[in-house]
Amino acid sequence: MRSGFCYSAVLLAALTTAALPAWPATLILVNGRIWTENPRQPEAEAVAIDGNRIVAVGSSAAIRKLAAAGVQIVDLGGRRVVPGFNDAHVHFLDGGDALACVQLRDAASAEEFRRRIGDYARSLPKGAWVRNGLWDHTRWAPAALPTHQLIDAVTPDNPVFVWRLDGHMALANGLAMKLAGLDRNTKDIPGGEIVRDQDGNPTGVLKDHATSLVEKVMPPLSEQEQDAAMRAAMHEAASHGVTSVHNLWDSTSDTFSAVRLREFQKFARRGELTVRIYHANPLPEWQSLASAGVQAGFGSPLLRIGNLKSFADGALGSETAWMDAPFADRPGYSGLASADLADSAAYYASIKGADRAGLQVSIHAIGDRAIHTILDLFERAEKENGAADRRFRIEHVQHLRPADAPRFAALGVIASMQPYHAIDDGRWAEKELGPVRIQSSYAWRTLLDHGAVLAFGSDWPVAPLDPLMGIYAAVTRRTLDGKNPDGWVPRERITVAEAVHAYTVGSAFAEYQEQIKGSLEPGKLADLVVLTEDIFHVAPANLDRARAYMTVFDGTVIYRSDGKHP
């Protein structure tokens, strides 16, 4: 909902440390270092909460005066507090499911990859699918893509379809390809690639829209599996201080957006939801939402819809990002435009129609050509539809034409970015792009200096659901391999305050919710996280030591790292 929340506004405006009337607080936090994100009161010592709303922020002495008999008071012991983190780009149920599936992210070799898949397959009933995985072949020496032959012998009775961690490439074993009818005679499809050996036979690796060839024969998660994934995902979020997420459509071949929304609704109805969810439907569904009268931000503070996602390209690690020039290690090949862009006229018509209907449009674009193309389409829609509070978003914005940086602020386009990707991809990105193009990769400093709004997230399960690691990445740009101690493209580093703002106020703005969350001030939702370290006063290199100590969601303590009940 786009309107602000009225919570006895006149009284709340008077709640300052100078004059605090008695108030029936239900939870009081004192002796902290409160980073409020409220420019009128940037820091404080204490917070008073009534139900699920903040009623006062001020000194510990003043806030204690609001405590009625029996109210819960938590002494923070000088710990740092920030608003609850709002992850602007996740795949929530997939992330929860990934926690229960085979773990391949840190498999350091093809042999270990094979062993883990085999061990996991033996734990399953015959015929059950081995899925998820999230492997990263750039960790291997040599960094060669796996093939179905690598795993066929250890998975004779179980179809396998395991994804690379970027979510734009997957490996099928021989049984999965047989079930899908995939062989040398299968033709490539728009927006995808079937990787083949020198004889033209599929290797088992499918890129972007080609993954649909196998996905169509995979069974959906059962209701019990969905519930388990949801609970695991909520616990993971709470343990990292994440109190809000934007759940994005997974891929051009994903047909389960409605299933996920129903799962979220089920937990909301039961009163079991411990994270606020802004759910994005596929862009092609815009007419269904518009005909029902839905606009951006429809719903409650717990669960909302009205965002629509689509794709312009793939990912750098899968070499399906759509680039202006060929990849440095693959002459003549510049990546792939998405299947959605195959009919550019229909694609633009959907953007324009959704925008005119008051729906929000978010487009995945990683390569410089993809980003430029989407900015052009957004600019055209703005001109043709006229002025509106549309808040177009581009998801990822990884590899940018320098000349396009000023266009984000000029067009009011939000840069929804995931800082952890920079310190992960920075291990190998120069091999793909060369030394010049990496200079405008993950250009946070440049975008901010040009006035763009940044909304930070993780892309979980592609990357860890840990905003503190995202802040570390944004501030240091120190790659995971330790080879860039002063930062990869260090001029694009930003400050801790700027990174926290992007994870709180920026993400709230990106979902039309800055009036009720993103900062700690009277009248706003009582979502906050207590940290183990004061991230504003530690050396940047030590930011990765910080953890969530306690998470408060909707006015209730839902997580403590020491396991104690508050």
Question: Explain this structure to me?
Answer:
The chain has about 575 residues and is α/β, with parallel strands linked by helices. Among the domains are: about 10-85 and about 525-560, Urease, subunit C, domain 1 (Roll); about 95-215, Diaminopimelate Epimerase, Chain A, domain 1 (Roll). It contains 19 helices and 24 strands. The strands form 4 sheets. Strands 8, 14, 15, 16, 17, 18, 19, 20 and 21 form a 9-stranded mixed β-sheet that branches. A 6-stranded mixed β-sheet has the order 3-2-7-22-23-24, with helices on one face. It has a 5-stranded mixed β-sheet with strand order 9-10-11-13-12. β23 and β24 form a beta hairpin. The longest helix has 18 residues, at about 370-385. The chain is globular, with a radius of gyration of 24 Å. The two termini are about 35 Å apart.
What is the total tally of β strands?
24
Assembly category: single chain
Q: Which spans of ≥5 residues are poorly predicted at pLDDT below 50?
A: 1-19
The main sheet comes to:
9 strands, mixed
Our measurement of the CA-to-CA distance between the termini, rounded to an integer number of angstroms, reads 33 Å
Question: Level of helix content?
Answer: 25-40%
User: Regarding CATH, which class of the domain at 96-215?
Assistant: Alpha Beta
Pairing-aware structural class of the strands and helices?
A: alpha/beta
Measured by DSSP, the beta-strand proportion falls in 15-25%
User: So, CATH architecture of the domain at 96-215?
Assistant: Roll
